[in-house]
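Q: Fold this one first, please.
A: Sequence and structure below.
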Amino acid sequence: MRDKKWQIFEDYLVERLKEIDPYCRPTIGSGNKGEKTDIKTDCGLGIEAKQRNTKSITIDNEVFKKLCSEIPLHSDRIPMLALENKEGKRWAVLDLDDFLDLYIELTQYRERGIENDR
């Protein structure tokens, strides 16, 4: 297991996502060695992970814009900024429309499931 705080955070993300993508892994060089984003996954997310040694977290618009630009236009992947502060609190930041689209789809899926169970 890797031991730097940002590596531990990336490993946490990978382990959670392995529930839906068993081949999920941190990218080589954490996105700096030819692979885009910090986490390689086929689950539909482009993930940039940021671990900070501060209590407060600031969302850097330039980092989010860069993340968005790394996802091809024809792709249906959703850019997500994963953040962790020094207390270990974690957040996911994504575009509001992407979040609403996901939430509406989830709600409709659940409603269909309930109707099919009747």
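Q: Good. Now the second chain.
A: Here it is, same layout.
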Amino acid sequence: MHPALITAAAHAASAHVAIARHLLADDVHMTPTGQGAPGAAFVQTAINWLGQYALWASLAALLVGGATYGFSTYAGNSYRAAHGRSVALAGAVGAVVTGLGPTAINLLFKASA
């Protein structure tokens, strides 16, 4: 290739890199807020309801799993007893995740900023 063509190609490539760098170098800012968003109050209410349903479901799993574990152990059915323990544990984990969910989301968002 002719040296002049190589030089022209290099200048064109460096110009493209400079343009791309300028476009990518600008900071983007975001401040999440629900104020003024249409339906923001309803979305917050729906999230609160979902949290309550999750806690009810976790309690139900804990109670059903515990009962299954207890009755199955008493009846000598180790397979069902193990299943009952798993369901009860899932209920406990569900309650923890429901309780820690908002804190975890806020912590991860603030850590990334």
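Q: Anything worth noting on the second one?
A: Residues 62 and 99 are 15 Å apart (CA to CA).
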